[in-house]
Amino acid sequence: MPKRILEGVVVSDKGDKTVVVKVERTFLHPVLKKTIRQSKKYHAHDEGNTYKAGEIARIIECAPKSKLKTWEVLPKAAPASGQ
Protein backbone atom coordinates (compact mmCIF):
# COMPACT_ATOMS: atom_id res chain seq x y z
CA MET A 1 0.00 0.00 0.00
CA PRO A 2 1.52 3.37 -0.98
CA LYS A 3 2.21 5.96 1.69
CA ARG A 4 0.03 9.06 1.59
CA ILE A 5 1.64 12.44 0.98
CA LEU A 6 -0.15 15.58 2.17
CA GLU A 7 0.69 19.26 1.84
CA GLY A 8 -0.13 21.99 4.30
CA VAL A 9 1.02 25.00 6.28
CA VAL A 10 3.21 24.71 9.37
CA VAL A 11 1.26 26.31 12.22
CA SER A 12 3.65 25.48 15.07
CA ASP A 13 7.33 24.61 15.38
CA LYS A 14 7.60 24.91 19.16
CA GLY A 15 8.43 21.26 19.87
CA ASP A 16 11.91 19.81 19.40
CA LYS A 17 12.01 17.87 16.10
CA THR A 18 8.22 18.30 15.78
CA VAL A 19 6.05 20.54 13.62
CA VAL A 20 2.27 20.83 13.47
CA VAL A 21 1.00 20.95 9.88
CA LYS A 22 -2.53 22.14 9.03
CA VAL A 23 -3.84 20.34 5.93
CA GLU A 24 -6.93 21.77 4.24
CA ARG A 25 -9.15 19.83 1.86
CA THR A 26 -12.20 20.87 -0.15
CA PHE A 27 -15.13 18.70 -1.15
CA LEU A 28 -18.69 19.04 -2.38
CA HIS A 29 -21.47 18.63 0.18
CA PRO A 30 -23.54 15.59 -0.86
CA VAL A 31 -26.94 17.24 -0.35
CA LEU A 32 -26.39 20.99 -0.59
CA LYS A 33 -23.85 20.78 -3.46
CA LYS A 34 -21.84 23.51 -1.78
CA THR A 35 -18.03 23.51 -1.58
CA ILE A 36 -16.89 22.78 1.98
CA ARG A 37 -13.41 23.53 3.36
CA GLN A 38 -12.23 21.20 6.10
CA SER A 39 -8.87 21.27 7.86
CA LYS A 40 -7.00 18.92 10.13
CA LYS A 41 -3.74 19.27 12.05
CA TYR A 42 -1.04 16.61 11.95
CA HIS A 43 2.03 16.32 14.18
CA ALA A 44 5.02 15.50 12.00
CA HIS A 45 8.64 14.58 12.72
CA ASP A 46 11.19 17.18 11.56
CA GLU A 47 14.63 15.73 12.27
CA GLY A 48 16.64 18.86 11.49
CA ASN A 49 14.18 21.48 12.81
CA THR A 50 14.26 23.00 9.31
CA TYR A 51 10.64 24.16 8.99
CA LYS A 52 9.33 27.35 10.60
CA ALA A 53 5.76 28.55 11.17
CA GLY A 54 4.06 29.80 8.00
CA GLU A 55 6.04 27.65 5.55
CA ILE A 56 4.49 25.09 3.20
CA ALA A 57 5.46 21.53 4.14
CA ARG A 58 4.84 18.13 2.55
CA ILE A 59 4.38 15.22 4.97
CA ILE A 60 4.43 11.47 4.41
CA GLU A 61 3.08 8.58 6.48
CA CYS A 62 5.57 6.62 8.56
CA ALA A 63 5.68 4.15 11.42
CA PRO A 64 4.64 5.73 14.74
CA LYS A 65 7.46 7.77 16.27
CA SER A 66 5.53 8.82 19.39
CA LYS A 67 1.98 8.99 20.72
CA LEU A 68 0.93 11.71 18.24
CA LYS A 69 3.56 11.55 15.48
CA THR A 70 2.88 9.12 12.63
CA TRP A 71 3.98 11.51 9.87
CA GLU A 72 7.35 12.96 8.90
CA VAL A 73 8.19 15.97 6.76
CA LEU A 74 9.81 15.54 3.37
CA PRO A 75 13.06 17.46 2.85
CA LYS A 76 12.77 20.92 1.35
CA ALA A 77 13.15 21.01 -2.42
CA ALA A 78 16.19 22.80 -3.78
CA PRO A 79 15.29 25.98 -5.68
CA ALA A 80 15.35 25.53 -9.44
CA SER A 81 17.80 27.66 -11.39
CA GLY A 82 15.89 29.59 -14.03
CA GLN A 83 18.34 30.08 -16.89
Automatic annotation (TrEMBL):
Organism field: Phenylobacterium montanum
A Gene Ontology BP annotation from the UniProt entry: translation
Gene Ontology MF terms in the entry: rRNA binding; structural constituent of ribosome
Assembly and oligomerization: Part of the 30S ribosomal subunit.
Function text: One of the primary rRNA binding proteins, it binds specifically to the 5'-end of 16S ribosomal RNA.
GO cellular component, one term: cytosolic small ribosomal subunit
Keyword rRNA-binding: yes
Protein name: Small ribosomal subunit protein uS17
Highest rank taxon of the organism: Bacteria
Annotated gene: rpsQ
UniProt entry keywords in alphabetical sequence: Ribonucleoprotein, Ribosomal protein, RNA-binding, rRNA-binding
